[in-house]
UniProtKB/TrEMBL annotation:
This is Peptide ABC transporter permease. Gene3D superfamilies: MetI-like (1.10.3720.10). It is a multi-pass membrane protein. It is found in: Cell membrane. It comes from Streptomyces rubellomurinus (strain ATCC 31215). Keywords: Cell membrane, Membrane, Transmembrane, Transmembrane helix, Transport.
Amino acid sequence: MPDLTEKKDAGQIPSPREGAAAAAVAKPEKARSLGSDAWHDLRRRPIFVISALLILLLVVIAIAPGLFTSVDPRAGDLRAHYLGKPDYTNFFQADWFGYDIQGRSIYARVIYGARASVVVGICVTVGVTIVGGLTGMIAGYFGGWVDTIISRLTDVFFGIPLLLGSLVILNAFTSRTVWSVVFALVALGWTQMTRVMRGSVITIKQADFVTAAKALGAGTGRIMFRHILPNAIAPVIVVATIALGGYIALEATLSWLGIGLQDPTISWGIDISSAQKSIRTAPFALFFPAGMLSLTVLAFIMLGDAVRDALDPKLR
């Protein structure tokens, strides 16, 4: 019988330390969930980092505009009518971007205008996601006549142009505020989320884990919200992130048309509308609010593209 010492010397029997190291190497890495895997991928995407930093800056501006300017955005001095001589020596001064037609600081109005746009964009996105997500999940899970009714109702609302329908709804309000604009956009904008959620739920409900949950006696509510919803929400998150920038642009369009937000609310759309009459003599009055609006919409679209690439395995 061969000696074990000879086998160990010959490399046939590993030492305890070598065996532990080999076991550690052979131990498989713990599988990450969809959310953690997407976050792991997003952190390494420059487009996500840039867009997230821009959005974070916009949120801070919307929450605390006083950190960026000490000037009252509604205080006007007609002597500074379209005075376009910015002085960049003092960051907190009134004429950093010049003055508008009423002698109000364009810089201060650009800073304070972020609040209305961000609030409208976020609230509309949350509203259409909740309404569209619930209706789409009910239609996709139950099917049959429930699916037929919700699908036909969705087709009716989907056939109404969002901009035109919002104009009609907002005309019914005597005073148009942020919440009236949010209501009008949510009332007509939930259809896309319904279709996305419905298709995702129809695919997920045929999975084996849903069948196993039904076999174990799980109730309908538990199956829908504990098993189907977490696995079907990814496409909705992608669509909602991209659509958020579109809702901000739509709010500015409604305000530019004179049917959206009204004074004394400060909005980029209102400032763009008032500055378009003097685009040749004072282009800076139009450039700064329009540039801020474009940058905000671009940031949310970039974020949505990054999230879509991270959550879709086919695009990796």
